[in-house]
Design goal:
The chain has helices at 2-35, 40-54, 83-91, 139-188, 237-257, 261-276, 366-376, 381-394, and strands at residues 59-66, 69-76, 100-101, 115-121, 124-132, 199-206, 214-220, 225-233, 282-290, 295-301, 306-310, 313-317, 320-321, 336-339, 344-349, 356-357, 399-400, 404-411. The chain is of the alpha+beta class. The strands form 4 sheets. Strands 7, 8, 9, 10, 13 and 14 form a 6-stranded mixed beta sheet that branches. The relative contact order is 0.09.
């Protein structure tokens, strides 16, 4: 009889050792798969195989937390419930941090299973598991439940690490895209302002959070004519910057061969629409000045109106069309024309100038801007731009919430 008992004890020990070896092999397989960055569905499939074949778990529901909600990523055996139903049932067990029997639970969903297994990090629930048709008992039960919890914990940590890695890659990709966009933007902005006997230009470019969609340019066409443009492309990032680079190249190309501003705008509209399929648009103010005739021709394409100050008066230049890049054929296209007296100041800006957050009750709008131009229109371009920014900073005590571009010309 003693020999039979000893033999039975040895058999149990051997069975336990083999089970431990199987568990270690399972963990090793999972760890190797994680180290190889195996896809999530494969990891989940490996978990199911281990539970079914090694541990004889007949029914499984495995839920993990995603953005505050629980999604069921592994399930087999029995009638399948919805993730919402399972999540609602598991939340009733949120006070338990270790595996617990639930077959006698009052909840009709929980009582279909043998055990509830929670996965926590500190006080946050990362995952829940329900297992059923699981008949292990005695000394092996506690070991098996702890092993299942450990196995699931390893997988949950791996999935969390995958998520963090993806987020870090996305953040680094976004940062690099912003850096590239800044580089492109800097190439588009003229390095120096222009000044000759007929015109003096002052420009200020203030990008918001290091990247903007603003653009301005000045092109001397011949000894009697020059052209300038101020524009704002919708959106941010490298795609917006590349669109603006393409716009600049197109503008320079057509300005060199086309005298008619309406034709230039029409061509630019078709180019932008072709490049963006209507997903982006550009607002701009485009003007051509003949210093011999002292005549200014312009088109305002959905942009903030440029202000012309002359002999104590100021008028907004609004004639033009809609933003470009939206319609295959512009619904209307009007060209403005105005004579310019010596000493006139022409102030161009992007909409960021009007998008200020003011902590006080003072109103800042286009009428107030017109008043400012009337009061300071005799200043030089650089002094005018500085006075305007000082005024907004000291009088209105406002902070910009978008890119700001100021382009001011003094015509002699």
């Amino acid at each position: 009889m003693a020999n039979i008992g000893d033999s039975s004890g040895e058999d149990e020990l051997i069975r336990l050792l083999l089970k431990r070896q199987s568990e270690l092999n399972s963990l090793l397989e999972i760890t190797r798969a994680i180290n190889k960055n195996t896809a999530t569905p494969i990891l989940v499939q490996m978990l199911e195989v281990i539970l079914q074949n090694y541990l004889q778990v007949g029914k499984l529901r495995f839920l993990i937390e995603k953005d505050g909600k629980f999604a069921c990523i592994a399930k087999y055996g029995g009638d399948l419930e919805s993730a919402m139903v399972l999540s609602r049932a598991c939340r009733k067990m949120n006070k338990f941090k270790t595996p617990i029997a639930i077959s006698d639970h009052s909840d009709p969903v929980l009582k279909r299973y043998n055990y509830f297994i929670p996965i926590y990090h500190k006080s946050k629930a990362l995952a829940y598991a329900l297992i059923g048709d699981f008949n292990t008992s005695g000394d092996m039960l506690s070991n098996d439940l702890n092993f299942i919890q450990t196995l699931m914990n390893v997988i949950v940590v791996a999935l969390e690490n995958k998520k963090l890695f993806r987020e870090r890659l996305q953040s680094e990709r976004f940062q690099r895209e912003m850096e590239l966009a800044v580089e492109v933007q800097n190439m588009l902005i003229p390095l120096r302002v222009h000044k000759d006997d007929s015109v003096e230009i002052g420009a200020r470019y203030l990008p918001h959070q290091n990247i903007g969609g603003d653009y301005f340019d000045f092109i001397r066409i011949n000894e009697n004519e020059f052209l300038w443009c101020i524009a704002d492309v919708s959106g941010k990032g490298i795609s917006a910057a590349l669109l603006m680079a393409n716009f600049q190249a197109s503008l320079h190309a057509w300005a060199a061969v086309e005298d008619d501003l309406t034709n230039i705008i029409d061509r630019l509209n078709k180019i932008v629409l072709s490049n963006t399929k209507g997903e982006r648009f550009i607002t701009l103010f485009l003007a051509r000045y003949n210093q011999k005739k002292r005549r200014l021709n312009y088109i305002n394409a959905g942009h903030n109106p440029t202000i012309l100050y002359s002999e104590g008066g100021a008028i907004p230049l609004k004639l033009g069309t809609t933003m470009i890049g939206v319609f295959e054929e512009l619904p209307f296209l009007n060209e403005g024309e105005v004579d310019v007296e010596p000493g006139s100041l022409i102030f161009n800006y992007t909409d960021g100038l009007m998008d200020f957050e003011s902590p006080n009750a003072k109103v800042w709008n286009e009428d107030k801007l017109l008043d400012f131009v009337l009061a300071h229109g005799e200043l030089s371009p650089d002094n005018f731009n500085q006075a305007l920014m000082d005024y907004l900073g000291s009088v209105h005590k406002s902070k910009p919430i978008d890119d700001i571009t100021l382009l001011t010309l003094k015509i002699f």
